[in-house]
Amino acid sequence: MLISILGFIAALIIGIVLGLTGGGGSILTVPVFVYLLGIDPVLATGYSLFVVGISSMFGAIKNLQKGLVSFGTSLIFAIPAVFAVFSTRKFIIPAIPEVIFQNQSILFTKDVAIMVFFAILMLAASFSMMLDKKKKVIETGTDKPKTTNYFSLILLGVFTGIVTGLVGAGGGFIIVPILIFLAKLPIKKAAATSLFIIALNSLIGFLGDALQIEIDWTFLLSFSAFAIVGIFIGIYLNKFIDGAKLKKAFGWLVLVMGIYIFYKEMMM
Fold first, then answer.
1. Is 50 helix (H, G, I), strand (E, B) or coil?
2. Rounded to two decimals, what is the model's pTM?
3. How far apart are CA 192 and CA 18, in angstroms?
């Protein structure tokens, strides 16, 4: 009972972070499912896709109303990404053997591989949050309209879809820089378009799981509801708290957690 309560509190915190910073909170969803609630890593990444997708959808709807979403860029990036994330969940994840490598002293399983890859992603996300690339883009004037590199956008859409499918994280820290540097979108439009792409990727990717495994909908919808409430709280608190500074501080938390997960899975 206590663990369940802590899990829902964590869902609320994840939503608040998403509302305050515009991203990053979803990177905590899988660790909460795996280490706090004891859910199998493969199932946890699937559940995370649903939570991230629903949460991002609320932000995307708000951005659509403001006219900040670039539909053309969204389709060019999202179509290959959606195909990749669905295929990853439906075909690649089930095809990975339960035991990848084993000898007398080492047992490297599918679950360990997923969590190690997730830890590496957390480390990358933490540096992205702490370095604050958005300011660098503003200073260098990179957000001026230029020719979009469509081929690279498609390839990176596939890559992002595979990563999203493997670890269940939205990948906003990957998508936003891609949209800025390759699609040449202004920063606000890149962030808004990213949420729209994340919502599509995550929810369609989740279908790859929903079609082949039994989902605890009562738990999943309850957890998502707490995350959504947290988003609205975060959006309200954003009026009083500097989101940029908070994002850097959150980056340090993600860094520590990434190191802990890597150590736990590889050394213990």
1. helix
2. 0.81
3. 13
